[in-house]
Amino acid sequence: xxDSSGKRAAGIAIVHDPGAHRRYLILRAFRNWDLPxxxxxPGETTLAAAIRETREExxxxxxSFTWGEHHLDTEAYAGGKVVTFYVAEVxxxxxSLPVNPALGRAEHxxxxxxxxxxxxxxxxPRLQRILTWADGVIGDPRESAAAR
Length: 148
Hints:
The chain is α+β, with helices and mostly antiparallel strands and about 150 residues long. The protein is built from four helices and nine strands.
């Protein structure tokens, strides 16, 4: 999906160890906890934007779309902005918060790897919906272990 209105953004719900010890990456900017995301550049697809924004905001370059390219949009917020989220897995917990050249500082102040319940306590309702959906896409860890 491409968009030239500037109201479209894309991001990724990132999971580490989708089994029994599943953790999600959340990022803090000021007092707000968020997921890696950002606006689409002209001609860019939502998946390409999600991957680029994740790299720019976290330094993560090795994403596995283990569950395919399923995605879910947020409801419109902040003047009509809609974010398309994907779910991806990472093997390493390595995260950096690189300086954004346009800002002269990192976009986020902190990151955490948290359980779903911890994440749901920290993020806003539109992201609670995304994380709950992502957890459903990943599925039951007992089923994953049985398939191995």
